[in-house]
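User: Before I run my own analysis I want an independent prediction to cross-check against. Here's the chain; please return only the structure tokens and, at the end, one sentence I can use as a sanity check.
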Amino acid sequence: MENMFHSFITYLVLVLALGGSIGSASAKTNLTKVTWAHAVNDAEFLTRVLDSDIQFIEADISLGYLIEDVTKENEIPIMAHPPAVESNLSLETFLKRILKFNREANVASKVKGIKLDFKSIGAFERSIGIIRTSYDMAKFDTWINADILPGPVDNTANVPVDPTRFFTAARRLGKATLSIGWTTRWGADFTDGSYSDAQVDAMINVIRANDIDKVGNAITFPVRAGIVANSVTNMIRLFCALKDTNDVTFTIWSSAGDAVDVEKLREFIFTTGLDRTYVDVPDDLHEKLHLDKTAFENTCKKTMQARCVDY
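Assistant: Structure tokens:
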């Protein structure tokens, strides 16, 4: 378990939080300042994160077994990333521990948001009742994350979560933020790839086909840093198609070692706006972005809202 903890701790992002709590005015005007912990799938790691200044907890949910379930007869939603099928932390315990912490927080800046990353539609559907009874989504930031569509680049290995079943289940969670994206294939040797017209159209269409535009959930699109740097035009088009019905943001993420055109990515961030762009990337990439320096202030000061006139 000690080795497991140390492997997980490498995912912990400890970028200094310059803003206030997630719900504060300062954090909302500059979402790039929000700090993250990743793969919080272990009970000891969760303890460490709750004791830290991290603002958002990301964790993976799969169907599997608690380690103490030696007979392996009780398959439940657990905190684990495939191919792992065992954990010392169930989804129910994970949520109840964070809820207790948030309710007892003596200042708003201590409150943690959660991002629940579902690895299969079965895990998500089995988790709905647990989330509803074990957490207060109305009071504390709650994101439901899944890759619901195939995306770049020639990405045939990863199977997306069924979008219709995902949205059907998500509607039972009320106004939780939907973090919905595309499966991707990328790495250190990739330089050419983007979110295509067809992939953006597919996302717009599946949101509308499932009436998510009508129910008005907030939506954040998790986009891979190396790919979205080449996709500014289509991301603006995506925002413009949904801005009147849903609160739309982007969450930039990256795997360690991904090829990223830093200047293009900075341009994307300043084009979409610091108030609409979370930056959840490894420390070394975050530092290279120099988000405290507005190098694109003159070329990108046109608001996203104003850019929609062109679409």
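Sanity check: Residues 67 and 188 are 35 Å apart (CA to CA).
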